[in-house]
Amino acid sequence: MTQAILVPLAQLDQSYLHEVGVTVGHVIRSVDVSVLRAAAVRVVDKWRLLAGHLEWSKQLSSWCVNVPLHGDVSGRLGFTTNILKRRLDTQFAVNEHAFAQVVTRPPLNLFRASSTPSDLQSYATSKAPIISIHVTKLLNCTCIGFSFPHGVLDAVGIGHFIHGLDDELNGRTWDAPAISTTNVVRETLDTLEAAPTIYDDIHKETAAFSSLRRSLRPASLANKLSLAAKITNEHIRHGIETKAVHLGEQAIQRLLRETKAEVAKLGVGRVSTGDILVAWIMKAMYADESDSNAVCLISLYSIRAMLQDKYPTIKDYPHNGFTTCPLPPFTKGQLAKLSVAELAILHRKGFEPATEIAWLQAYNTYLKKALSGQFLVKWEKNNELWIHTNQVIGRLEKIDYGSKMFGVWVWFNPLEFPGEIGINKFNGGYLVQGTARSARWRAVAKLVEDMDKPQPRL
What we know:
Blueprint: E1 4-8, E2 21-28, H1 33-46, E3 53-57, E4 62-68, E5 78-83, E6 100-104, H2 120-126, E7 132-137, E8 142-149, H3 155-169, H4 184-194, H5 201-204, H6 207-215, E9 216-218, H7 221-238, E10 240-247, H8 249-266, H9 273-285, E11 294-302, H10 304-307, E12 322-326, E13 330-331, H11 332-337, H12 340-351, H13 357-371, E14 375-377, E15 383-390, E16 405-413, E17 420-426, E18 429-437, H14 438-451
Parallel strand pairs: 5-7, 11-15, 15-17
Antiparallel strand pairs: 1-4, 2-8, 2-16, 3-4, 6-10, 7-8, 9-14, 10-18, 11-12, 11-13, 17-18
Helix pairs in contact: 1-3, 8-12, 9-12
């Protein structure tokens, strides 16, 4: 009887994500800790991938998850708790009655034990569980954090765990994602690499592909140190904070209605809710700035929908399944002149190439040939760089603890990029989380305050 199998990761999982740990946190009223732990163990037992440990395969030249097919898994879930005899301040909680508000992200130590690894090497060395849960009980709420290596799971992957946990807590049956000794993304990209070129030379010179070459660089030690130094400097000089704007149901409906009406007048196609939210938060962040620095935005786009017709199993693929699409840079002067609708249109047009298989083929070829498969974002002097991820695809808020939820948060460890935007649904509206300069969050807070005022009747 086979005791274990190796599940290989794809190149994308091992580009830079193999050095990143993620924590997804929920703030709720209360939970029975013993019930939560028992339900989480059942999820790990059913989805055996999570019972595995990381190891490097010389034969495959790849990081893999060594997955046990049988046996007890209770020791393969990290689970720690803490009790604090104090209250969590209201600045950390979403007010369900607010039209719109700025909320501060709570401290990470309420959601993640300090002993939790971040990078795949540390997970492999310690044979640490892939999923670690940390629960902190306070006087007025409970914080629950799910920590995991980004090289193994993305938003869709941790979403599978959260939804399985939801089903276990609420007595419903569910199907765990299949595990396999092959990797559908790795196989797909290998097939595209061997296929005739779809992306012709003229198409490669589009603004999107030019922006791609300008925005990524090899992940050499020197480039890693340079990027880390810039990130650290930005944190020290500008007081980087992570907060979120919660746009309640009425606020989001008004924003979408007004923006889509303007887009329709311009007659240039459609924009999504994600396009509008990215445009709105970028406009808000730079409301008080007018210097000559260029603003560069990199959006990450899931490849699952693109490949699902040909590779149906990719729909539930739990590892990293996205492509990177940088937009052409624009100045702060241009940003000030553009309306939210116009900026949303630019965002939609900018990453539309990334929705095509042709782009994925060219993107994969470029990463392998020009960057040797290992890459970092390129943060140039006098440029301000932003990375946008639409985490709605993971449905991270979709769990019923039998208790009221006050917020959904995401952390990246060990060092957070000071220009990160993440979008999640929450409580009928949206949470737009950002890691940015304190002055920019003050500008956002002013705009949110003005939004909450009654609108004049025409």
